[in-house]
Write a structure and sequence with these properties.
single chain, 77% helix, mainly alpha, 4 strands, 352 residues, two-stranded antiparallel sheet, 13 helices
Length: 352
């Protein structure tokens, strides 16, 4: 496989070009489907396969920016984007992103920033994935059973909001704002600002487009329908990725050659993932997303074990878990897309 290795001058390493394309394609499919930039896969993947953490973050952010353009266009055609909410998220997230990137650079000068970033990854992904599984298997079932005398679902189930989002909507700290495209009548601007400030910080600190935390935040904290949350989160991912790429490039931490190669695969994958969204119900997307981030967190955990004990097996296993899960999930999404589109075509032919 050395035949496909190329020299990356900025990062100062050699890397397999086929692996870069594969990472890009998988992240494109998963990003378009889940409404995330895929940094929770790319950053640890590049780090595991040889990139220094700061270069992995900067290169990932540049790839996020490129791949998300096509996914945004696709979701816009399907009516899955709340532009008003998306623009507010952009303005607020940029502030948090700059703070996060400055913290990373300062920590890099002080010592090994990779250890801290990996622990933060593991903790955040584990907590988020566990809650989403709890939501799917416990809260959803409970809501389906809470029906009234007419056989209708509970109020929370009708408007698609979680109990957390209902509580946040009752915080009346002016000014208040509405988001008609998302079915939100009134919510405090300060709640929205705080949510996006935190996700922006995580974007700069962890090297992600913010989507892997924004998408569930839009669902569980703000109360958006899943498909709208997927499309709207991509707006923030697009612009935070662009700004993150810019600020890391100024700091000399972006490997453009690797980012461009990954983008070749990601641009195709993003179109496939975005199209597949219309064939999977909201809670199905949440379940797949939860499984995906839990396995991503596990791979980072095995990498951390390797860093501590220097046992090669754990690094190899981290690579297998990360890429194996990404490839498997990508295959599932593509298979579902092909199956449902074939059914749709068959029904259309019968009706004619």
């Amino acid at each position: 496989m050395d035949l496909f290795n190329i020299s990356l001058p900025v990062a100062g390493i050699e890397f397999n070009v086929l692996l870069l394309i594969l990472i890009g394609f998988c992240v494109g499919v998963l990003g378009g489907f889940f409404g995330v930039g895929g940094g929770w896969i790319v950053t640890p993947a590049l780090n595991i396969f040889g990139f220094h953490m700061a270069f992995a973050i900067g290169t990932d952010l540049s790839n996020i920016f490129g791949q998300t353009i096509g996914a945004v266009k696709k979701h816009q055609k399907m009516g899955n984007i709340d532009w008003k909410l998306g623009i507010i998220s952009i303005l607020t997230s940029v502030i948090g992103l700059e703070i996060g990137s400055e913290v990373i650079i300062a920590m890099e000068k002080a010592g090994d920033v990779g250890v801290i970033v990996r622990w933060c990854y593991m903790l955040l992904l584990a907590c988020l994935g566990a809650y989403m599984l709890y939501d799917y298997f416990v809260i959803q079932s409970r809501q389906l059973n809470e029906t009234d005398l007419d056989g209708n679902n509970s109020e929370n189930k009708k408007n698609g909001r979680t109990k957390i989002s209902e509580k946040l909507h009752r915080i009346n700290i002016p000014p208040m704002i509405s988001f008609p495209a998302s079915g939100i009548d009134s919510v405090s601007v300060w709640i929205i600002f705080l949510i996006f400030l935190i996700t922006g910080f995580l974007s700069g600190f962890l090297g992600v487009g913010g989507g892997f935390i924004i998408m569930p935040a839009l669902i569980y904290l703000i109360g958006l329908p899943t498909t709208v949350a997927v499309g709207t989160s991509l707006i923030t991912v697009l612009f935070s990725g662009a700004y993150g790429c810019f600020t890391y490039a100024l700091k000399g931490r972006v490997e453009l050659v690797a980012a461009f190669i990954m983008l070749l695969g990601a641009s195709i994958g993003a179109q496939i993932g975005s199209t597949a969204v219309k064939y999977v119900k909201g809670y199905g997307i949440r379940l797949l997303f939860a499984i995906m981030i839990i396995f991503a967190g596990c791979s980072v955990g095995f990498e951390q074990i390797y860093k501590i004990f220097q046992i090669k097996f754990y690094q190899t296993f981290a690579e297998i878990v990360l890429m194996g899960t990404a490839i498997f999930m990508t295959f599932m999404i593509i298979a579902r897309l092909l199956l449902e589109s074939r059914k749709e075509k068959t029904l259309k032919n019968k009706s004619e």
